[in-house]
Amino acid sequence: xxxxxxTVQDLExxxxxxxxxxxxxxxxxxxxxxxxxxxxxxxxxxxxxxxxGLLPGELSARxxxxxxGTEGNLLTWSERRMARLRGRDLSMVFQEPMSxxxxxxxxxxxxxxxxRIHRTANPAQAKARAVELLERVRLPDPRAAARAYPxxxxxxxxxxxxxxxxxxNSPRLLICDEPTTALDVTVQAQVLDLIREAVVADGxxxxxxxxxxxxxxxxxxxVMVMYRGRIVESGSCEQIFTDPQxxxxxxxxxxxxxxxxxxxxxxxxxxxxxxxxxxxxxxxxMTDAEADAxxxxxxxxxxxxxxxxxxxxxxxxxxxxxxxxSLFGRADRVEALRGISLSIPAGRRFGIVxxxxxxxxxxxxxxxxxxxxxxxxxxxxxxxxxxxxxxxxxxxREDLQIVFQDPFASLDPRMKVAxxxxxxxxxxxxxERKRRERVAETLxxxxxxxxxxxxFPHQFxxxxxxxISIARALVCRPRILVADEPxxxxxxxxxxQVLNLLTDxxxxxxxxxxxxxxxxxxxxxxxxxxxxxxxxxxxxTGDVESIYTNPQHPYTASLVAATPSLEDAFxxx
Amino acid sequence: MTTxxxxxxxxxxxxxxxxxxxxxxxxxxxxxxxxxxxxxxKPRRRRLNASLVIGLILVGLVVVMALVSYVWTPxxxxxxxxxxxxxxASAAHWFGTDRYGRDTFTWIxxxxxxxxxxxxxxxxxAMLIGVPLGIIAGMTNSGLLSGTIMRGNDLLLAFxxxxxxxxxxxVYGPGTGPAMVALGIASIPGFARxxxxxxxxxMSTEYVMAARxxxxxxxxxxxxxxxxxxAGMVIVQASVAFALAVLAEAGLSFLGLGTQAPAPxxxxxxxxxxxxxxxxxxxxxxxxxFIAIAVLGFNLLGDGLRDRLDPKLRGRD
Lengths: 573, 317
Fold this sequence. Notes:
heterodimer, A: alpha/beta, 6-stranded mixed β-sheet, 21 helices, 19 strands, B: about 60% helix, elongated, ATP binding (chain A), nucleotide-binding (chain A), ABC_transporter-like_CS (chain A)
């Protein structure tokens, strides 16, 4: 047992009468890497904010937080005393790299600033050391990066700068709050490696907050699982992942594993987690059998496919020209799609995978006739979308419906659920009474209570809202369902439920599914075919298993390798 | 390396019921999704908002005075009582009397009618013209129509409201009517801008995208999605424009370009009190105070409504 670096005892956080974090105790030893896992609203970020003394004013914290080498309880320290500690002994990397840096200050100065403030280096040394630090976080050309402004760097590069700032004074404890959630998978893998290396090299303690089990397995030695304001379980990574004790941990583990399915080919949810056996439990035969069952059910609709393409895209190009920002400035041109050709037969489940900026959302908008293509042709169910009359477009849209990414933004907050779901029926001139019947049917199909119809969207949780969104898409019985990252904004346990629902509905309504995602794991579970997109082009297309197991294009290979999975995490540890 | 393992003893490890159900009050949607560990939407807390309450009280005071003046006033406003002229406050005349012996309190009550009328009519004119223009400009963003509307708007904005009112009274003769129309026209740009920026925001949301994908026409999107979602911002703007109109009407009447004699108006009372400022300063004090109350009331009301209605300030739950 090494001496403990941070001791948190009976930490309790409340807003007025409401307890957000129930009395929680944990310790972090010097140099130890600890993961704190939980879903949104579980209190994990509040716990870290309390340790840093950064709780919002309306929240109050009780209990004890002690840092070795300092006297007394950090919670009772004055803001001035805490400020001297923050950035020197304790430092933090935040989730959103876009807003964590000062946009008006050069990156090098921001790194040097933290050393100047704490007087750990004189101005000249600080400047030189800033470049060293930027080199250490592997920014290409650190000298140039030091002179750059944040907007000139990409999200991953900014997160590296944040890490450089956090590590500048060789802190004893680094807190990372979802540092890679906003990043693409390939970038995420690099940043995670960097964090681990930096922390190990300096012997810094790490408190790593995340909702992603696979990420925590690749960085941390020990894991604490937080659920509704309590740490329900803690132990070494291996223990937690192979032999979880608490119901919730088991559920989380089962729901995270997109390769394991139950005997009906469904993903495990918290409720069905009891039957789940993890990969690492050594019961490989079981999971293999399940995987077979899963792929059998996946393969089934393929046989139904008639081979006749329902969606046909050829040589699609989309160029956006940004409006000129000044009178004499040049209009920027952005090539979102550069010659895409695709053919999706009826009855297939077609996945489109790509990172942010790859043009996958643009492709969807053009498919659904929401944006005109620059050149090229799109044919959906016999209708040429690019030259369709408004009547043709109308009939095409009755065939093709969309589920959007953000369940908070895709439902009109001022409309009742019944009106939201019935909206596609209004232009079809379905009479009022019939509309209500269809809404009730669809609500039942997506697993919502009939009473939900009279509520407003804000009264529902993220998963429920996504069900409403799916109901709206299915109410007019389309032949094609287009889903734009429908589960990326959801918690892991809810994700499994929504994916299962989608699977069921696609079977039941015999839909052709076009599923866009950045997550290869999700696509692998759900889809029969996949196209991989990169910078407006399709680099590889084929059936999902062969792409996943035997990628031909180097980009696909790097995508597969970078996708954090529980299996890989175990293999590494 | 420390490998500790601990289980929270307070939690039943087989407590699936606790995992499934959320602690929400009966009837809340948490119960709908069986087996969901979704964080159920929390009931939104409605906090009492000081500026909203004070604003409502001040505006309410003016409105009540105006309504009561239709059924009861202490005196007849046009009734002159020369023997009682230029009196201070007393039991008979609460706010004193003016140079003709007319009761100041009665005049304040009658004046509130004109104040509210001018506010309502000018804001209605501005809203009915400005909001549709703004929505059209927002929905046809970057088109020729949008450009024309917004540049016309800028032209109007560059023209001072009072100057416009003076021009109107020069053309149509001074009076409450021309003043109301002029103030209404001058407030159009504010509404058009608010409506346009709100519309742009709403048009970029996924729910409008969903409506377009569901074949809803432009007009249907404007009335079912855009209008309800920008209503909050428009109401806030209306409240602020109301305050400005009240102030502008008082100014016009003070200059003799607004409400004409013998109709009672706070602006005219201020003007008439000028020559008695040395001897009877309260003649200026009372109308001034009530103009301040009305303006402050509508401004606070606007602030309070903004806190409650503006989607940008309202957190997601």
